[in-house]
Design goal:
Length: 408
């Protein structure tokens, strides 16, 4: 029978994966965690190291990565600035008579419109730890699923267990709309994946000392915990909130522009208009409990991306998909180019997929797969041109070869 390997009680690494594993009363710690602890002890507090950019500066940086969504970016820039200004004021003057209320952000909009990207980009701009959680995997404590405290653990891990840094990070909770109450009536059974999770999230979103299992998983008695103060963590929650527009329209009345109860396919611009008029009562009717909504002071609406937006996403941002693949081909000495019609065809195909910008990378990856396989082994190739027919008719791309490379 194989001997069971001991593992670090903090990071979970087994003894074969570390240089030293120090044992203690009922626990182990590896050399990597010891060095990390020493760094944390010797490191000065990071409370004043946040890159506090002005709202316009935040917006300008977001423009470098995110196309469109100008109103949403403006609202988020203000909310994020006020959040970190509040943290700075707490460290600067703890005896102030004015108390800033913790503010979190709720994002409404269709899939692929940039909600996750904007949260990730904010963390990059501000240089703070970032973690993503999928609301559909969370359940109320004591039930099969993932404890809400585990999303704090991800942030701590991404901060390399620097608790002070993690406590000023950003957590994005995706698909928050999937936690809607299953019924407006009180039930004798527990809604452990809907209202129950909203209740469980309340405390950590508002601000509390969370007991986080260092290795994740379910909580159990006699377990050691990492204590994390969530008071200064910025929570951003996002969801598609399908059919929320109908609730808003009903509240506003039939005089709303373009609203037609008999028409299932409402124009995206009309849906965006309705979502811009959202009130707390609409979200409550949708199935989000009032206490949870009350933790989100800022609400930003994301519009469905139009064809021209998708074309710009392909080429314009710093991390544009086409730019990334062009750089990959340049590493092999090959120039990659797309005609304007080809870019429009890719964007049109993504729009038909109905998943917004998320479909763009998969379409381009599939399109270039054979080329990325063969081109590195063919030194004669100097340029590859992708035209519209490559997308619409699966035509072969135009390949130019260099006479210098062939040696002739």
């Amino acid at each position: 029978m194989a001997k069971e390997l001991a593992s670090c009680s903090f990071c979970g690494r087994e003894e074969e994966a570390v240089e030293k594993l120090v044992s203690g009363p009922g626990a182990f710690i590896c050399d990597k965690c010891i060095r990390l602890c020493m760094d944390i002890i010797q490191k000065k507090p990071t409370s004043h190291d946040i890159k506090l950019l002005k709202p316009k500066e935040i917006n300008d940086r977001l423009d470098e990565y995110i196309i469109g969504q100008s109103l949403a970016k403006k609202a988020i820039s203000v909310a994020v600035y006020n959040h970190y200004k509040r943290i700075r004021s707490l460290h600067r003057d703890k005896k102030s008579d004015v108390e800033y209320i913790k503010s979190n952000v709720l994002l409404l909009g269709p899939t692929g419109s940039g909600k996750t990207l904007i949260a990730r980009t904010l963390a990059h701009i501000l240089d703070v730890p970032f973690a993503i959680a999928d609301a559909t995997t969370l359940t109320e404590a004591g039930y099969v699923g993932e404890d809400v405290e585990n999303i704090i653990l991800r942030l701590v891990q991404n901060a390399e267990y620097d608790i002070a840094r993690a406590e000023q990070g950003i957590i994005y909770i995706d698909e928050i709309d999937k936690l809607r109450k299953t019924s407006s009536n009180v039930s004798i059974t527990r809604d452990v994946s809907g209202e129950g999770v909203q209740q469980a999230l309340l405390k950590i979103v508002e601000g509390t000392i969370a007991n986080v299992p260092p290795k994740g998983g379910r909580k159990h008695p006699n377990q050691e915990y990492i204590k994390v103060n969530t008071e200064n963590i910025l929570f951003i929650a996002g969801g598609a909130f399908v059919h929320l527009d109908k609730i808003i329209s009903k509240r506003l009345g039939k005089g709303v522009i373009g609203f037609d109860e008999t028409n299932r396919h409402v124009d995206p611009t009309e849906i965006s208009y309705l979502l811009s008029k959202v009130e707390i009562e609409d979200l409550v009717e949708f199935g989000i409990i009032p206490e949870f909504i009350g933790r989100f002071n800022s609400i930003a609406n994301f519009n469905e991306l139009e064809l021209d937006d998708l074309i710009e996403i392909l080429m314009k941002p710093k991390n544009a998909i086409i730019k990334q693949y062009q750089m990959l081909f340049e590493e092999d000495g090959v120039q990659l180019s797309f005609t304007e019609d080809a870019l429009r065809a890719v964007a049109q195909k993504a729009k038909e997929a109905g998943t917004g910008a998320r479909a763009l990378r998969m379409i381009v990856e599939t399109l270039l797969l054979d080329l990325m396989y063969s081109v590195p082994s063919d030194p004669t190739v100097s340029e590859v041109i992708i035209e519209e027919g490559c997308i619409t008719n699966k035509d072969e791309p135009t390949i130019k070869r260099s006479s210098e490379k062939t040696g002739s």
